[in-house]
Design goal:
By secondary structure, this protein is α/β, with parallel strands linked by helices. It has 12 helices and 15 strands. About 45% of the residues are buried.
Length: about 375
């Protein structure tokens, strides 16, 4: 049903949780860097005060499985229990870019190791919470495959192995999903990837077929998971339970080749595609419920971006697209992946020693306004029986 909510609130908050290594070898830990591990309860109270009752969180795999097959969930239990006490619904990312020190992501054992983590964590959830669990087995299969396997911009910093890595991550996502369902048959599974639009440069119209072929790459992981492509990987329609789409201001660009950075196009460009049409295409292609799993931007543009995305999502919903939520990502500012710069892209800033976080008031105001608008739309859809 179009009017049926996926989550306890339409707006969600996403806590940045990347744990991959920089090229220099230094490992990131964004949960610790943002002090969310210390102040989860305080953070959840802030979210609830703004009407947010659902979040995205991630496991820090390298801390949980420091040696193969031995799991220590001390790093996640305080967050899990704080969420339970706050009545906060959580989507748990199992793999958010970082792997344990002893594990090569290309190694066939990666698939079994992720499945083992999934099974152990599902057992933990089974004993800690009565909520219907939400799991995202592998965050951004397509992005990791391109950035980490094709152009060496992300751990594992490989080149020309993107297709190989994508197959590996799909196998792992399927194995992890089955492991979760073995323990928790009611678990909901979200497969999250960026959506984007690519066009040829007007001075190079001969590149239009290449640009369109590149645009369609965004569907490959979902096609593999559902068995529409490369069925030997084990994909089936049941694995596409819920689709999460990530959308940022830089997700539309002019094609400059398969490995080169594209030139970002803005909403006033004639080739810009409305986000509502992108959502409609995903819904029509897969027939599954979806949500905006990540969206946001930096600085003074934060409120305006939320206004724009919300307007497009409402338009999509009114066209019958089953969009079940929007996740502000990140919900708190974090230090940049590459240089530790203070990324001002959240609703709240760094915490002080007492856990207090200063809000970005324009974004807070816009969130309240958009939340009211979505509540009105949902009430109207329920009245209409949509």
């Amino acid at each position: 049903m179009i009017g049926s909510p996926l989550f306890r609130s339409f707006f969600l908050g996403g806590f940045e949780c990347s744990t991959h290594r920089r090229r220099c070898g230094r490992r990131l830990d964004q949960v610790a860097a943002t002090a969310h591990d210390r102040f989860a309860a305080t953070d959840y109270a802030l979210l609830k005060a703004h009407g947010i009752e659902a979040v995205r969180e991630g496991l820090r795999w390298h801390l949980i499985e420091a040696s193969p097959g031995r799991y220590d969930f001390a790093s996640v239990l305080p967050i899990l229990r704080a969420a339970r006490e706050a009545g906060m619904q959580v989507i748990w990312d199992l793999f958010h870019f970082g792997v344990p020190d002893d594990l090569d992501i290309f190694d066939p054992r990666f698939v079994d190791r992720l499945a083992g983590l999934a099974r152990a964590f599902a057992g933990l959830l089974d004993g800690e919470s009565d909520d219907v669990p939400w799991i995202a087995p592998v965050n951004e299969i397509s992005f990791v495959s391109w950035a980490g396997g094709e152009v060496a911009e992300l751990d594992p910093y490989a080149r020309s192995r993107g297709r190989e890595l994508k197959r590996q991550l799909v196998r792992a996502a399927i194995a992890a999903t089955e492991a979760v369902w073995d323990v928790l048959p009611s678990a909901r599974i979200a497969h999250i990837d960026p959506v984007f639009h690519v066009i040829a440069h007007p001075d190079r119209p001969h590149e239009a077929p290449d640009a369109e072929a590149y645009r369609r790459v965004q569907f490959e992981a979902w096609d593999m998971l559902s068995g529409r492509a490369e069925p030997s990987l084990g994909g089936r329609p049941k694995y596409l339970d819920v689709i999460g789409v990530n959308y940022y201001p830089w997700n539309q660009w002019i094609y400059n080749g398969p490995t080169a950075d594209g030139t970002t196009i803005r909403p006033d460009h004639p080739g810009y595609r409305p986000f509502r049409l992108m959502l409609h295409e995903i819904a029509r292609r897969y027939g599954r419920p979806l949500f905006v799993a990540e969206t946001g931007t930096e600085g003074d543009r934060r409120a305006g971006w939320l206004h724009s995305v919300s307007r497009e999502v409402r338009a999509a919903i009114l066209r019958g697209v089953p969009v079940g939520g929007i996740c502000l990502y990140p919900i708190v500012n974090f230090p940049g992946w590459d240089d530790d710069r203070h990324c001002q892209n959240g609703l709240w800033d760094y915490a002080d020693e007492a856990g207090r976080r200063a809000p970005h008031e324009p974004l807070a105001h816009e969130l309240r306004r958009q939340d009211r608008r979505f509540r009105r739309i949902r009430r109207g859809l329920r009245v209409l029986g949509a």
